[in-house]
Design goal:
Layout: E1 2-3, H1 4-10, E2 22-23, E3 25-26, E4 36-39, E5 56-60, E6 72-76, H2 79-87, E7 105-106, E8 111-112, E9 117-118, E10 123-124, E11 129-130, E12 135-136, E13 141-142, E14 147-148, E15 153-154, E16 159-160, E17 165-166, E18 171-172, E19 177-180, E20 185-187, E21 193-195, E22 201-204, E23 209-210, E24 215-217, E25 223-226, E26 231-232, E27 237-238, E28 243-244, E29 249-250, E30 255-256, E31 261-262, E32 267-268, E33 273-274, E34 279-280, E35 285-286, E36 291-292, E37 302-304, E38 309-310, H3 311-321, H4 324-351
Parallel strand pairs: 3-4, 4-5, 5-6, 7-10, 8-11, 9-12, 10-13, 11-14, 12-15, 13-16, 14-17, 15-18, 16-19, 17-22, 18-23, 19-24, 22-25, 23-26, 24-27, 25-28, 26-29, 27-30, 28-31, 29-32, 30-33, 31-34, 32-35, 33-36, 35-37
Antiparallel strand pairs: 1-2, 20-21, 37-38
């Protein structure tokens, strides 16, 4: 619960309205009720503001529309940034224990920083270090010699295998597995497969967020590397020896095969796939369900399709592809007409 005057001050905006308006939550403009704070980011939702029940709405400074008398407008330069900063104030989730639970199993050789909380039935093995103010959920497994940085949040059910390194201010959501063996096998002459030992680690930088049920395999040797600021959605598969550059974002159900090197500031849509050993230039963008079958050396390109090609090339190709059935009919008709003309010409020549 926050007073509207506090929200204005928090956003560094002068407020001259009533002091008794209280905000209890943030809600969508279509569903907002009295006591709610809402927002309009996309112009298509502006039509809902005239009938909203929200007590206050965040809009761009140039927003111009009729609003209910009971609705207070908060004009900002960037609506999305304002909402993101305010959501922190309304985050009342309680997914972590306040201290170290009695049922947690902590090896005598582990080093636990100040202000750390550890949930029920979590196992912390020998040689583990956990930085100060980190929150470790229930039923988490931290293998031998795992290193966890400061102010890290690890949600329930996460498994981090031996030797892996997690930076500062990292968030790892439920049931993610970090450091399991990479998919490495050697085919034998008799058709059987021999396992290739995976002796490396996973190294995750600072300010990384990893969604639920994501898997990051340890390297065959060296490290699978996730650089600073990377954001991985739920259900992402990162194979052994992959290197993901800083501030790259990858949406759900994407598969990154072994030894792929993704550059910095890349954006990858959902259900994309990368074949092994490709190198992707910085700033590359891939639409959902793109299949990347080769390396990309030119930075800041946009790609779509399987195999992925330039975005506009794909759009132009698709504009033809979607009318292929109709084109086939037209070609068939033209072939018949051409055949008829040829037959007429042949008949005329015979008569002459």
């Amino acid at each position: 619960m926050l007073k509207i005057s506090y929200i204005f001050r928090y956003l560094n905006i002068e407020y001259r309205g009533p002091e008794d308006v209280v905000i209890y939550r943030i809600n969508h403009i279509r569903d907002a009720q009295p006591g709610d704070l809402s927002f309009v980011v996309n112009g298509k939702f502006g039509k809902f503001i005239s009938q909203t029940g929200a007590s206050a709405v965040i809009v761009n400074k140039n927003f111009d529309s009729v609003v209910p008398e009971t609705c207070i407008l908060i004009r900002v330069d960037d609506v999305q940034s304002a909402i993101s900063s305010l959501l922190v104030l309304f985050d009342n989730g309680k997914d972590f224990f306040d201290e170290i639970a009695d049922s947690a199993i902590i090896s005598p050789g582990a080093m636990i920083g100040s202000g750390v909380s550890i949930g029920h039935f979590t196992l912390v093995c020998a040689g583990v270090t956990i930085g100060e103010k980190s929150l470790i959920g229930s039923q988490v497994f931290l293998g031998e010699n795992v290193r966890i940085g400061k102010n890290v949040k690890i949600y329930p059910g996460v498994k981090i295998y031996h030797g892996c390194v997690i930076g500062d201010h990292v968030i790892i959501h439920a049931n993610t597995v970090i450091g399991c063996d990479g998919f490495g096998f050697s085919r034998q002459e008799d058709g059987t497969f021999t396992k290739i030992p995976q002796t490396g680690i996973v190294q995750i930088g600072d300010h990384v967020e990893i969604g639920a049920n994501t898997v990051i395999d340890r390297s065959t040797f060296g490290a699978t590397v996730i650089e600073n600021g990377v954001k991985l959605d739920n259900l992402v598969q990162v194979a052994h020896n992959v290197h993901i550059g800083a501030h790259t974002v990858i949406a759900a159900q994407t598969g990154v095969a072994g030894s792929v090197h993704l550059g910095k500031n890349c954006m990858v849509g959902g259900q994309a796939a990368f074949v092994p050993h490709v190198e992707i230039a910085d700033g590359s963008q891939f639409q959902g369900q793109s299949g990347v079958a080769g390396s990309i050396s030119e930075p800041n390109g946009k790609y779509f399709g399987t195999p992925a090609i330039g975005f506009m090339d794909y759009i132009r190709s698709y504009s033809v592809f979607k009318i292929l059935p109709e084109l086939e009919k037209k070609i068939y008709k033209l072939e018949k007409e051409l055949e008829s003309i040829k037959n007429e010409q042949n008949g005329t020549q015979k008569n002459n």
